[in-house]
Amino acid sequence: MEHRLHAAPLQDWIQRILQAAGSSATEARTVAANLVLANLSGHDSHGVGMVPRYVDAVLEGGLVPNATARVTTDLGTLLALDGQRGYGQVVGLQAIEMAIARAQQHGSCIMTLAQAHHLGRIGHFAELAVAQGLVALHFVNVQSRPVVAPWGGADGRFGTNPCCIGIPLEGRAPFLLDFATSRVAQGKMRVAHNKGEQVAPGTLIDEHGRPTTDPGVVVVPQSNGLFGALMPFGEYKGFGMAMACELLGGALSGSGTWHRPTDPAVRAVVNGMLTILIDPARLGTQAAFAQEARAFADWVQDGPVAPGFEGVQVAGEPERRARARRAESGIVIDAQTWQELRDAGRKVGYDGGP
Hints:
- It is built from eleven helices and twelve strands.
- By secondary structure, it is an alpha+beta fold.
- The radius of gyration is 20 Å and the shape is globular.
């Protein structure tokens, strides 16, 4: 049986679970708000369904409540930070706020963040930057379990490694491109598995390297103890982008890359991120940028609409529409995820519900 909740009671429930797991009230509120915003945005893969894994990661020691981002290098427009395995929603926010301040001061900032626990929806950080009139580029790697196969490979060798680009558009909502370099996000497979659904052909291979539509192959160990793998989007193009995210988000940040055997028992999800922020107002092209960016976005959407479509959507529009819709109708939590949330609370001594 599905459960439908509005954002406020859902956020309050999640905050209480996280506080029971050791977070301060402020940290728990920040993480819970971020997760619920992902649900509101239509990205249940990055929403409250992550909490059971977070609780397990805290209990195993791979996620450290109340940790803060530590500056390891500060050269003004060049920053390096260590997330110290803290909640990514917290240390990531600290890092992006520092980078935004530097970009506003100097016109640009290159920032790396290493050893952050799961950063969640990267688009959230880009939204914060574009709200300040900044262009934002993010390259992220994922260390938890290698769930994506290289193009031409038959098992997982790296994570879903997201890339995100945010661009402010004067007079209209920003362009906000946020995508996993796998064909779909790993979290969407968890959601599909919990709902008992199959996925589109071409999305997955099983533990033997054979195509499958069963999302369970990347969610739970199979009969031989191995997992299947997601496929990269766009064949070799997505594979190339995934490698770029691994090298920039992981290696360049000092957070590390994946090249070791898998331990299915480890629940922590560690992200490294390279962020580049640019202030168009300081670049000397602000007038042309504002005019041309707006004109191009309008031109793209003013064209004829293909059969079967209501119109051309620019990146960021689906999330904004989902927020308006779900803020009104509520957020649906499937029965399996609901039970996992209740179980997660009990693990840390909290037996309440929404």
